[in-house]
Amino acid sequence: MKGPLFYSKILLFGEYGIIKDSKGLSIPYNFFKGALKTEKDLSETAKKSNQSLGRFAAYLAKLQKDEPKLVSFDLESLQKDIDQGMYFDSSIPQGYGIGSSGALVAAIYDKYANDKITVLENLTRDKLLRLKKIFGKMESFFHGKSSGLDPLNSYLSLPILINSKDNIESTSIPSQNAEGKGAVFLLDSGITGETAPMVQIFMEKMKQEGFRNVIKNEFIKHTDACVEDFLSGNVKSLFGNLKQLSHVVLDHFKPMIPSKFHALWQQGIETNDYYLKLCGSGGGGYILGFTQDMERAKKALEGHKLEVVYNF
Predict the structure, then answer these.
(1) How far apart are CA 224 and CA 219, in angstroms?
(2) Spatial CA neighbour of 117 closest among 146, 86, 162, 148
(3) Along the 312 residues of the chain, how does pLDDT read in single tens digits?
(4) Three-state SS for 302?
């Protein structure tokens, strides 16, 4: 059995901000993907995945019992497949901020949800919000509290614009310019990050009035502007806002940035060769980079693994 493929995602803008109703923009990233598979002889990794699916199935049974109106699954088939050695075969690195659990949630919903909302029907705002809510509840199994956006992105394989918590829509982004010098890229920190502790730090910081003001008056302001600039293709304004955003993150989100990247972060702001921002919750995994000249950024970041995601 080889199930359909579900892709990783990149939240270009909106990490942490969307918890507090900023705009956000999430795009599918087809370089990494996963699918449900069944085999008789499981490798160690597949065995772990199979056991994790067993625990997930028990969680889904409880979710269905607690919220019967929200979602129901063919739990019998799911359990039978798990008993026969089903696992999630995925190239998406875990703890890297690109939606490894999101792709798994999307795959399980796609195969086992009863009366599922499909990608082929007219996706009204109500349907998108309902899907997001279902996915949020499902993904909470993996890291505490989930917005449901990662699985939604993986399930639809479309860019998603978050206007606010209750207002999301699928969107289109400007076509890539294959000849362009500018790029969005991923920088590999070489460290695995964990979502829950990072979100905890953020929630603690939100208890301070000073930090709340920074989030509202600077972080959300620049995030919203970046989303609008990116969607309208206004590259000049985008890089002005990115510089501000990168600065705010370095000043106020230090615990989320692996310490060995603090100087590189600062260097980008000072030289304008590139600007860095968090990819997901931070703490490790990938860091997102934006540059108007990829060759210059490569030289400045020599010795680091970079992967281009989008060309300007």
Answers:
(1) 9
(2) 148
(3) 457 899 999 999 998 888 788 999 999 898 999 999 999 899 999 999 999 999 999 999 999 999 999 999 999 999 999 999 999 999 998 888 888 899 999 999 999 999 999 878 788 889 999 999 999 999 999 877 788 888 999 999 989 999 987 899 989 899 888 888 999 999 999 988 888 788 889 989 999 999 999 999 999 999 999 999 999 999 999 999 999 999 999 999 999 999 999 999 999 999 999 999 999 888 888 999 999 999 999 999 999 999 999 998
(4) coil
What's the chain's Rg over C-alpha atoms? Answer: 20
Report which of 6, 276, 21 is spatially closest to residue 154, judged by C-alpha positions: 6
184: three-class secondary structure by DSSP: strand
248 in Cβ contact with 218 (< 8 Å): yes
* Separation between Cα atoms, residue 35 and residue 91, nearest integer Å: 9
Cα 63 from chain centre: 23
* 157 to 5, 14, 40, 196, 312: CA distances (angstroms): 10, 18, 30, 25, 21
145-149 contacts at long range (C-beta below 8 A, 24 or more positions apart): 145/199, 147/18, 147/19, 149/9, 149/11, 149/18, 149/24, 149/26, 149/102
